[in-house]
Write a structure and sequence with these properties.
- By secondary structure, the protein is α/β, with parallel strands linked by helices.
- The chain folds into three domains: about 80 residues, Winged helix-like DNA-binding domain superfamily/Winged helix DNA-binding domain (Arc Repressor Mutant, subunit A), CATH 1.10.10; about 110 residues, 3-Layer(aba) Sandwich (D-Maltodextrin-Binding Protein, domain 2); about 90 residues, D-Maltodextrin-Binding Protein, domain 2, CATH 3.40.190.
- The chain has twelve helices and twelve strands.
- The strands form three sheets. The protein has a five-stranded mixed sheet, sandwiched between helices.
- The protein is elongated, with a radius of gyration of 23 Å.
C-alpha cells in the first residue's frame, strides 16, 4: 500500500491515539498500561504506522523508545490532528460550556503555584469534563515539549529566547529571587568570595535560578561553593534550610511567605543576578484548541483581576 492509500484507507484514529501515548511515555509497556490494551497490540500498531509511512518513528532501546528526527516531525503533525479532532468534539457544546477536551500544562515556576492552583480549580468548576494534566519539570525540557506539541502551555521564567522560538508569553510575577536562611543562620556576607565559602543548597543545574547563579560566578571569576547540596524540590529546600545553617536561593514571593509563616530569614541576592519575570508561555498561533483557549483566557483574566486588586489596596 502506497503512502496516499495508507493515509486514506489504512490510517485509523486508534493509530493516532497509540502514537500520541507512545510519544508521551516512550515505552511500549507503559503505553499499553495507559491505553488498557496488550503490549502486542501497541507493537503491532506501531509497526503498521512505520510500514505505512515508510520510516522509523522511534528507535528501540533496552530502556525504551527514542524519537527519530522524522518521527519528531510526524508526532508534531499528529498532535495537531488530535487537537483539531478535540476542537470538533467540543464545537457542539461551545454555547453551553466545553463538554470535552484536555489542557496539558508544564510547571517550572514554583512561586506561581498559588495562582496556578486557583485557576485550575476555578476552571474545573466551570468545565468539569475537561481533562487537566499538570507536569513539573525543568524549563528547557518543558519548552521543548511545548514546541513539539506535547504540552499546551508552560508556567516558567520568561526569557529573551521565546520570540525566536515562535512562542509568546504573559507575565504574571516579577520573578525576583531571594536568599533564604534558617532563623539562627548568620546573614550572608556582602563579599562574594566569602559568600561562596558558606554552605549552600542550590537548585538543579538547568533551572533558571541556578543558571543565574552560575552566570554570576562566571562573570565574577568565582568558583562554586565547595560545600553544596543540589535539590530539585522546594519542600526539601524548606526542610534543609530550616534545620541547618545553609543558605539557599528561592523565589522572592515564596521566601516572603516562609518568612511570614515560619520565621525564616530572607536576604537580597548579590548584585548582578538578573530577575526575569515569571508567567505563562504558549505557542504563537491564531487559534488553540477550545479547552486551551478557554483556560488561557481564564488565567489571563484572573491575573488581571488580581493585579487590579493589589493596585486598589
Amino acid at each position: 500500500m502506497d503512502l496516499s492509500s495508507f493515509l486514506r484507507r489504512g490510517l485509523k484514529l486508534r493509530h493516532l491515539h497509540v502514537l500520541v501515548m507512545l510519544d508521551e511515555v516512550l515505552s511500549v509497556s507503559r503505553a499499553a498500561e495507559r491505553l488498557h490494551i496488550s503490549q502486542g497490540a501497541v507493537s503491532r500498531t506501531l509497526c503498521e504506522l512505520e510500514a505505512g509511512f515508510g520510516f522509523a518513528i522511534f528507535d528501540r532501546h533496552p530502556r525504551g523508545l527514542l524519537r527519530t528526527s522524522h518521527g519528531q516531525q510526524l508526532l508534531r503533525a499528529v498532535r495537531a490532528i488530535i487537537d483539531d479532532i478535540s476542537a470538533l468534539e467540543t464545537l457542539a457544546g461551545q454555547f453551553t460550556g466545553l463538554s470535552r477536551g484536555e489542557v496539558r500544562i508544564g510547571v517550572q515556576a514554583s512561586s506561581l503555584f498559588t495562582q496556578i492552583t486557583a485557576t485550575v480549580v476555578d476552571f474545573k468548576q466551570n468545565y468539569p469534563n475537561v481533562d487537566i494534566r499538570l507536569h513539573e519539570g525543568i524549563r528547557s525540557r518543558l519548552i521543548d515539549d511545548l514546541q513539539h506539541n506535547r504540552l499546551d502551555l508552560v508556567y516558567a521564567r520568561l526569557g529573551g529566547d521565546l520570540t525566536e522560538r515562535g512562542l509568546v508569553s504573559h507575565a504574571m510575577s516579577s520573578g525576583e529571587i531571594a536568599i533564604i536562611a534558617g532563623r539562627q543562620t548568620a546573614p550572608p556576607p556582602e563579599d562574594l568570595g566569602a559568600l561562596m565559602q558558606r554552605p549552600w543548597i542550590l537548585p538543579t543545574a538547568g533551572t533558571p535560578m541556578r543558571d543565574e547563579f552560575d552566570a554570576l560566578l562566571t562573570r565574577t571569576g568565582h568558583m562554586m561553593p565547595p560545600d553544596c547540596i543540589t535539590v530539585d524540590n522546594t519542600q526539601l529546600i524548606f526542610g534543609l534550610v530550616s534545620t541547618s545553617n545553609r543558605l539557599s536561593l528561592c523565589p522572592a514571593p515564596l521566601a516572603e511567605a516562609w518568612h511570614q509563616s515560619y520565621g525564616l530569614q530572607r536576604f537580597a541576592t548579590p548584585p548582578g543576578m538578573s530577575n526575569d519575570p515569571l508567567g505563562v508561555i504558549y505557542v504563537d498561533r491564531k487559534s488553540h484548541a477550545p479547552a486551551v483557549e478557554a483556560y488561557l483566557k481564564k488565567q489571563i483574566a484572573a491575573h488581571a483581576q488580581r493585579t487590579e486588586g493589589l493596585t486598589d489596596t
